[in-house]
Known about the structure:
Its main location: mitochondrion. It is found in: Mitochondrion. The chain is α+β, with helices and mostly antiparallel strands. The chain has one domain (3-309). The chain has 7 helices and 13 strands. It has helices spanning 5-12, 22-29, 39-52, 61-78, 130-135, 196-219, 298-309, and strands at 14-18, 89-92, 96-103, 106-113, 116-120, 177-184, 225-237, 241-251, 262-271, 275-277, 281-283, 286-289, 292-294. The strands form 4 sheets. It has a 7-stranded mixed β-sheet, sandwiched between helices. Strands 3-4 form a two-stranded antiparallel ribbon. A hairpin with a 3-residue loop joins strand 7 and strand 8. Helix 1 (5-12) packs parallel to helix 6 (196-219) and helix 2 (22-29) packs across helix 7. The protein starts with a helix and ends with a helix. The relative contact order is 0.22.
Amino acid sequence: LFPGVRQAQWLTKTKLVEGLPPAVQGIMDNPAHGLQELEERAKRAVSHARLWDTAEVAPRREQYCPVLFENLIHICRLMSAKYPSLSKRMLARNCRIAATWERESILLQVRGLSGILMNSVTPIPPVASKEEILATREHVLETFYPIAPTIDLQEVNVYKELNDTGQCFGDGYPYSHPHTLFFLESANVRTDRFRPEQLRAKMLMFAFGNALAKAKALHGNDPKVLEQPVVVQSVGTDGQLFQFMVFQLNTTDLVSNDGIKNLVWIDSDRNLYEKAQCVPEVKKKVVTKPAGISGFQPDTFKKFLALYLHGTV
């Protein structure tokens, strides 16, 4: 998506709210959850991914980005000792999503691999109140006139309008609710990775697609304002910079610009650490910069953990 999130907002009929919603921020700020107690583990997780998990002088991004993700997820799982319901989660990889909707007179479809998908036995509760949802009726969606909002979308012949929550899930699958999507931009060459703005647009489109497919599976294909909105989260990272997103599907009536809008909260461009010095810098036989991780940002780690805990605590 060339214009990024602004275009994704129009395509999904969504209002943007900067920052994370109060429900997630409240998890971060509540000392009872003990998030700060895991900060040292998170620092070691970064050091393991960037400095220790390789025989090479400096690991490539395609190696350390997935390792860092697995390390952080492992730390999150440790919280299941305190909150047993966290064990009712499952990570699904290489799942395909398909969701179809009409926007104005255009038939749209999001389809493809939806990153690493964490599913849950129970859905995430709505994060916006009924008053906040009703207030979205006054929101005016940005247009791109004279540029068409579908300018850079791939045009294909659609022979079947699919709404599928993923080939991973069969009837009776207990972890049937999409919880959080994880996108790892681990290509070593910068030009092969999504830029942060395009990554956020991709995160929004796939969070919307998963929410829409789930809503249609629960409530049918008729366009309607949902009594129980569907919430899907998304996290994107290149192994250092993180993007956080919470999407709430309030309506499947997407044809018109009028009426209830969907909502997305985005917290952008948060470094987990500033720099990884893989080998010490030596000048005149004196170590001027020792090997190690500098500028660790505990709040970024807490946001990752809070999104994992969201819907349980």
